[in-house]
Specification:
This protein is α+β, with helices and mostly antiparallel strands. The chain has a single domain, classed as START domain (Alpha-D-Glucose-1,6-Bisphosphate, Chain A, domain 4), CATH 3.30.530.20.
């Protein structure tokens, strides 16, 4: 199976991870129930998926005033999902992996941003992406651990 990765040459790249004390099924289920994102992720105003959770399926979501249309590029449930999509000139690739460890579920994410708006303000964009992904991971941890008990 060909694996898609983030754009290592992009001007903005964020990598982050978090340990979650909850079963893999709980974490994966929350994270990939795209139409429910807005119920538990404060930064996401709405999200809808048009079709099954598989490569090629498009989902639309709104965050920070941006309307984003993303496409699932690769999915290997319940371990890995990659999606990408343009948003007002920003080309983003978002990769998530989930790995069981002795201490819990390790959720690792990587995202690359490229495009004219990113190249114009790389420092600001880097800070925005870092903050956004860190928040997403922390909320996912909180929500999954609360469900898992």
């Amino acid at each position: 199976m060909g694996t898609m990765d983030i754009d290592e040459n992009a001007p903005v790249i964020t990598r982050d991870e978090i340990l979650i004390d909850a079963p893999l099924g709980t974490v994966w289920g929350l994270h990939t129930d795209i139409s429910s994102w807005s119920e538990w992720l404060p930064d996401i105003d709405s999200s809808t998926i048009e079709g099954p959770l598989q490569a090629g399926t498009v989902f639309r979501w709104q965050t920070f005033g941006l309307s984003i249309e993303s496409t699932i590029r690769e999915i290997d449930p319940p371990r890995r999902i990659v999606w990408s999509g343009p948003a007002q000139g920003i080309v983003a690739i978002h990769l998530w992996t989930m790995t069981p460890t002795e201490n819990g579920m390790l959720v690792h994410e990587e995202e690359s941003w490229d495009g004219a708006p990113v190249r114009a303000q790389p420092e600001e964009m880097q800070q925005a992406l870092d903050g956004s992904l860190r928040g997403w991971l922390q909320i996912l941890k909180h929500k999954a651990e609360a469900q898992g008990r």
